[in-house]
């Protein structure tokens, strides 16, 4: 899986550590979900899934660069991930 970082801010070391932890937590949660739901698998490293991490807002979104049908399938249930 690929996560593109988007930020306009200069991050301090502490802020960067926090952002890395947010990404790490998301990767764990998303990987567990993809592994437990075979209908969403695409390859062994889930490289077909692309996400945009809006650092300033601390928000991760499914990227429109994600290939079909993976984009549409995950977009249909994205609220389960974006509500947290």
Structure description:
- 40% of the residues lie in helices and 17% in strands.
- It is α+β, with helices and mostly antiparallel strands.
- The protein has a three-stranded mixed β-sheet.
- Strand 2 and strand 3 (59-62) form a beta hairpin.
- The longest helix has 24 residues, at 13-36.
- The two termini are 20 Å apart.
- The mean pLDDT is 89.
Helix segment tally: 3
What spatial order of strands do you see in the largest sheet? 1-2-3
Helix-residue proportion:
40-55%
**Rg to the nearest angstrom?**
13 Å
Tally of discrete structural domains: 1
Low-confidence stretches: none
Mean pLDDT across all residues, rounded? 89
Instruction: Please indicate the percent range of residues in DSSP E strands (runs of 2 or more).
Output: 15-25%
Q: Based on helices, strands and strand pairing, what is the structural class?
A: alpha+beta
In N-to-C order, the SSE pattern is EHEEHH
User: Based on DSSP secondary structure assignment, what is the total number of beta strands?
Assistant: 3
- Give the termini distance in whole angstroms: 20 Å
Please give the largest β-sheet: 3 strands, mixed
How would you describe the shape?
elongated
What characteristics describe this protein?
single chain; 84 residues; 3 strands; elongated
Chain-wise SSE layout:
Layout: E1 2-6, H1 13-36, E2 50-54, E3 59-62, H2 70-75, H3 79-82
Parallel strand pairs: 1-2
Antiparallel strand pairs: 2-3
